[in-house]
């Protein structure tokens, strides 16, 4: 990618700028900028200028909804250590069983699953912006109430409410960012949303470290999310609705044009850019059945399962969401402090310190993924990253099963293996899964499909997080990690056979891959293989 400055605006240009072939043939070359016939001819579809003030705001606040999801993950790791310590809990119900500890972690995921089901049924009727506003309300009320919880049942009820907010935010945020971003930076911004989630995890780990030795510190860890939820609500209230959703819902071209102008800022100052993008959106919406986004959710859900053109993207999205969780991610994030204590770090404070390092490394590797996703592509990062995760899980299983107890060697191997796992996860499943989910589904069923993929994600996350303490008690950590490694091998095979490359394509071009009966998608899988074979000769 390259950056330049013109007319006081930053411009982002991909290394290989690509226009829409079919649309470009139909797009007339018009007179120069400002109406000067002597100025160079301008094709609006080649107008790659990005107004980062407007585009950045349309990314920042939806991404804050993801940061609050990540914060819950990181903070809960410290909460478990604080809440289950009789000296630090500040409660008379600190002696939690393995199953109750699993409930503390997984109840928010159960709420996220419920929120995803709500989005599945009513997401198109609500709209992306309204969903995120509801999520901000649930985040704020629940986090403030968690800080005052005086019983396990109260805590679990508040965790459920917070999870409802997660489900709504994580359904709407990828769609909102994908639908308001210029094509040249869509992959960058959706991947940066994952960086926001990871930044939230790091912030949660750090908050756990700050309050680790405070009596009742777990209350402060949870309550610190409330100001962030307020910022999310105020920010989203100032943003426009997704222009693509407005078209799909039947709001009309004028409403969509106004929203697009607000979302893209100075880039939309040229009316030819707005008209070209609206033409592509209208064509896509017409091909997908036009408006009615708010009233045909059930019919579209049936179509998602029944029509052949939707089966491939549904398989890709659902499988990525499933494998993202059942390859061990919840065990590393939610139980990081406890894993480090078992690995030989004697105190909760020491374990929290290492968790902060883990979170910082996770953020660093997410930045690496963001910087390379539009250059290297989605598919290579997935294959390389998941391969590294399998190696890390094998190392963890062998280290924990070596019989060395909490010795220094086992602790060192465990830390290195966890860092390897986190690094590989963050350049693969972490950002790429949500990026592909935001890209591959046709507009007509995008809301229902993303919600269904999120249901798969949270259902598997809930199951793993709830069962993990009990499974570890029953079979031990070594067998648990080796089992995750086996699942990782299956995930690799699934990615290799099903996931095409979507780098550099507009949402409408990706949609055309499925309407061609899958032949274009098959070519997108075969092309990287051919390049690899040619490069190795």
TrEMBL record:
Record-level GO cellular component terms: cytoplasm; membrane
Keyword annotations from UniProtKB, A to Z: Membrane, Transmembrane, Transmembrane helix, Transport
Keyword Signal: no
TM region positions: 57-79, 99-120, 132-154, 190-212, 314-336, 356-373, 380-399, 411-437, 449-468, 480-499
Compartments, as annotated in UniProt: Membrane
Residues of the Major facilitator superfamily (MFS) profile domain: 58-503
Record Pfam families: Sugar_tr
Keyword match Nucleus: no
Protein topology in the membrane: Multi-pass membrane protein
Family matches, as SUPFAM superfamilies: MFS general substrate transporter (SSF103473)
One record GO biological process: D-glucose transmembrane transport
Alphabetized InterPro entries for the sequence: MFS_dom, MFS_sugar_transport-like, MFS_Sugar_Transporter, MFS_trans_sf, Sugar/inositol_transpt, Sugar_transporter_CS
Ranges where the record places region Disordered: 23-42
Family annotation (PANTHER family): D-XYLOSE-PROTON SYMPORTER-LIKE 2 (PTHR48023)
Family assignment from sequence similarity: Belongs to the major facilitator superfamily. Sugar transporter (TC 2.A.1.1) family.
Protein name: Major facilitator superfamily (MFS) profile domain-containing protein
The species this protein was found in: Monoraphidium neglectum
